[in-house]
Amino acid sequence: MARVREFDPEQAIEGATQVFWRNGFADTSLEDIVSETGVSRYGLYGTFGNKKELLVAALRHYEQSMSDMLWGDLRKPDAGKQEILEFWHSIRRHAEDEGFCNGCLIVNVAAEVAPHEPEIAAEVQRIDDDHAAVFAAAIRNGQKSGEISLKIDADGAGRMLVALSHGLALMVRAGVKPTELGGAIEAGLSILGSPDSSG
Amino acid sequence: MARVREFDPEQAIEGATQVFWRNGFADTSLEDIVSETGVSRYGLYGTFGNKKELLVAALRHYEQSMSDMLWGDLRKPDAGKQEILEFWHSIRRHAEDEGFCNGCLIVNVAAEVAPHEPEIAAEVQRIDDDHAAVFAAAIRNGQKSGEISLKIDADGAGRMLVALSHGLALMVRAGVKPTELGGAIEAGLSILGSPDSSG
DNA sequence: CCAAAAACAGAATGATAATTCTGTTATAAC
DNA sequence: GTTATAACAGAATTATCATTCTGTTTTTGG
After folding, report:
1. Are A173 and B24 within 8 A, CB to CB?
2. Which one of B24, B103, B187 has the shortest CB-CB distance to A152?
């Protein structure tokens, strides 16, 4: 027996995600989100609580959409070296497109907000741990099947790949052309064994 | 025929550097810097211009002091694999100390400020390019002397090490314990050849 | 000592922005 | 249709902060 909500919360989160990704947290005002989404302050506060909680929602939304777009094959239980290489090819393709010039929202938030907000730090660490574990599992599969050297430590290498992706994302956000970073990716992947030099 | 300045600009920059490192740019008010340094607003504006220029000064000061502390041996013209490994040992030692829980000022600034400020972005890129070149030169030396495989691309690997350091610094700032990152460093260094497993 | 120059301390300004409040409007149960 | 409910639009509130301004003090050359 009351008025009905005029906006779709999912679309609002999507809009907020774009603004946070583009501008960062501190440089995004709620007014910016109102403009982007068309949702009123009232609607945003009523539905999401406050700016920080909206960021958490955006972070989760971003993770989900990236998971669908980039991490799907790598999460399969039998993913191995091939899937790791394909993941990075995919990253390179996307980075050379528009849209990824803002780097990675998770990385941006880790740098800007996590140090002051334990809740956000926990969220970021959860995501990173998950990604490192996904890489590590694929590396172990590759080691079982003989594609990847048994000499490397799967957990260490998994974390290394996550850290490398963060560093590269940061460089892109800070203005480095993604095309200049191909060599760094090749170098990082070379720990898996003889490099795939096709692209 | 005028009053003399009561503060030492170098000390003021050192103080500002500490505050920017600890709190980031947006979350540092000029009042914070006044408190930290004891220098008045007037002195800061008169000597450094404004907050952004003060950040540039802090960044240069930080780079200089880190260069002295960490990069000295690696910059020697004949530095090779040994110096690269020692650099990373040194990083690990420092990271496990207090004081480096704030990550790396250059990385923090790259993430928070560079995207909005071309002048800062240029500064950050200059530093990164320099560091990548230092690594690359040492890798080339190692390749000449046979310590490092000729199969790796020195420039790509140099950039990779810089990106990795950025990613790791970010994780530390976001709250990850430095001791958890040793495996990632080992993995990254394994591209140079058979790993130094001593520590 | 006197006066000009430049540093000092801290108040004033102006802008931005997170959050709350107020009055208005649409909805649905009765 | 009436009415309670909850959403809406946007004004009001409160706070923070970068920067500038004002009046004061110190220094040094005459």
Report:
1. no
2. B187
